[in-house]
């Protein structure tokens, strides 16, 4: 047995209500509820809401439910008289296959969404699965779970090394958030960062990241690994004074090197507030880097006015480096221009030896990507750094670099 919850709306009800008045409109809904009850199998229930009739019934299969809803929408279309005013009543139905869920606000909301979709499609009814609306539902649950995870310390940081392309030395590590959810598995940051931004949890989340990055850095230092750590700062926070004060206090109390990666769009909302904060960060010795460069619309000339030391070219340009026509040119001119403006350049998303070799030839300062190292747990990061120190030396074979250089000379890069 499956429970179906539905909302039956009279078409153009709002306009009708204005014409016939509120109390008659209520009468109309009561009449509709009575008609529905007469048409549905037992057991079922139908009751008038504010603007529509809500109902629930159960049936054996989804096909049976579809059939009933179709029948219902056809049978409810009828000539109706109210206070001497005759009109043809037609309805649209939004229904949810609720499985064995009890009727709740969430279910009503989902039926409203189904109704909205039916109207958009100009369909007489739409039966949606409760699971179709899971994302909307998830948003709510995830937010609650995320707050809990911050409190329970149930998040983790992975670190992805940034490597000097000339020497192969590990210059720093970027902290990337990981959320192992107890039932949903590993949730990627792309999915919960925006949620945290929208729900006002991003400051707490970033404070968590900063606190743990500082603690991990101290731990690394104790075992002889001195490593700068970069953390990602959401655009929402860049102009935030409270966040600035918290971050400055925490970093001042620690004794390592912390960098901030910020996206170019961070300057959009409150450019003056953002600039003031960036200047305070920079004055406090925090290395600032522009993340995802190229994915937005800022010009280098504008970014140059910011106190930033590093430009990270978005991985989309790097992944297409070896195959694309225009991308190598774009990357090379970005590197040259950034150097002229006294910024260091990092290429993220380096996935192949070819891309790495090209970037080395182009004079890109730092490289980061799956080919060099994936984001690593702290222990694996230690192993990686120690191995690198031992091996010390060029990251790619000289032969490969020479091959690329020869290609460049033949004009492939001009
Ligand atoms: P991002 O800052 O651009 O980080 C780089 C992303 O690219 C990471 O994804 C990383 O795992 C992935 N990546 C690294 N190397 C390669 C490669 O060679 N190829 C490809 N295809 N991808 C590569 P991740 O960890 O899923 O993070 C996604 C985004 O979530 C980050 O993009 C960042 O914007 C955000 N994020 C992660 N941690 C934090 C955080 O603590 N705070 C904030 N505000 N945002 C964070
Ligand atoms: Ca980043
Ligand atoms: Ca990036």
Essential attributes:
414 residues, alpha/beta, Alpha-Beta Plaits, TIM Barrel, 2 domains, five-stranded mixed beta sheet, elongated, binds ligand C2E, binds calcium ion
Question: Would you spell out the secondary-structure blueprint of this structure?
Answer:
Layout: E1 2-10, H1 13-20, H2 22-39, E2 44-48, E3 53-59, H3 62-76, E4 78-82, E5 85-89, E6 91-97, H4 105-120, E7 125-129, H5 134-152, E8 156-164, E9 170-181, E10 185-187, H6 189-198, H7 202-222, E11 228-233, H8 235-238, H9 241-253, E12 258-263, H10 271-283, E13 287-293, H11 300-303, E14 310-313, H12 315-319, H13 327-340, E15 344-347, H14 353-362, E16 366-367, H15 378-391, H16 398-412
Helix pairs in contact: 1-2, 7-9, 14-16
The structure holds ligand C2E and calcium ion (2 copies).
Q: Could you give a quick summary of the protein structure above?
A:
The protein has 414 residues and is of the alpha/beta class.
As a percent range, the share of helical residues equals 40-55%
Q: Tell me about the biggest sheet? A: 8 strands, mixed, barrel
CATH homologous superfamily descriptor of the largest domain: EAL domain
Q: What spatial form do the alpha-carbon principal axes imply?
A: elongated
Low-pLDDT residue intervals, each spanning 5 or more residues: 393-397
Q: CATH topology of the largest domain, which one?
A: TIM Barrel
Strand order of the largest sheet: 8-9-11-12-13-14-15-16
Level-2 CATH architecture of the largest domain: Alpha-Beta Barrel
**Ligands and ions found:** ligand C2E, calcium ion
Oligomer class: single chain
Number of helices: 16
Instruction: Provide the β-strand percentage band.
Output: 15-25%
Domain count, please report it: 2
Structural class: alpha/beta
* Rg from Cα: 30 Å
The CATH class label of the largest domain is Alpha Beta
